[in-house]
Amino acid sequence: MPEGPSILILKEKVQPFKGKTVVEATCNNKTLNVSLLIDKPITDFKSWGKHFLICFPDFTVRIHMMMFGTYRINSHTKKPPRLGLRFSDDTELNFYACQLQLITEPLDDVYDWQADIMSDKWNSKKAIKKMKAEPELMVCDALMDQQIFSGVGNIIKNEALFKTRIHPESLVAALTSKKRNQMINEAVKYAFQFLEQKNAGTLKKNWQAYHKKECPRDHVPFIRKDTGKSHRTSFYCEVCMKLYE
DNA sequence: GGGAATGTTCACTA
DNA sequence: CTAGTGAACATTCC
Fold first, then answer.
1. pLDDT in tens, A91-105
2. Domain residues of chain A, as ranges?
3. Which residue is nearest to nucleotide B6 (CA to C1')?
């Protein structure tokens, strides 16, 4: 479910609920005091990378889908939802297997919108600055760092590195500035392609690296390895992807 | 049944 | 104190 583009799709789908007032709210664990939501209007939906934000007048409910989160709009599954919202016109929103958090601070104090790769406030110069502050970071970890590239997940990481021919264990400081800029631009570009392809149902079909067995360029087996301090799986080709170190 | 997977945080140890 | 490890959560598929 996660990765930034999927959250944008969710945000788009719930637009009809903007302005509706919650008449009933349930939570299948104790992570959110749902009585706070009763009779409160949803003022907006926002997102920051993988965070989905339901805004109310005086607070925000943060939903993180983690690995397995799902949702249903105007329907539900057999299991009680982690967060279930019902409205007076008999419509409902249900979220499952997700992490909930109440945010009472102003969102501008909590989130650096310029770090969200899919936001129109995205600022690549700021990301470069953050990368320069951690020169020993491997690029696989840098891309997955939500404070630098909010919204990037393991799929976007693998596809962007393959397309730009950068070995995932390359060090940030060793990249040429040209290569670094290519990597950043490709991550952003692919995130939007991800969005389009997911909507078209062609996402998996278009993967060139993620979970692939061999390199489509060189037809040699991909290396599949836990990389970096994040220990997330990378799929890469030692023939065409250069290691900068 | 075991293992893996689009993710993150926290407790614990060396 | 810090870096690294393992656990925890939760779901579905093979």
1. 999 999 999 999 999
2. 4-110, 113-236
3. A2
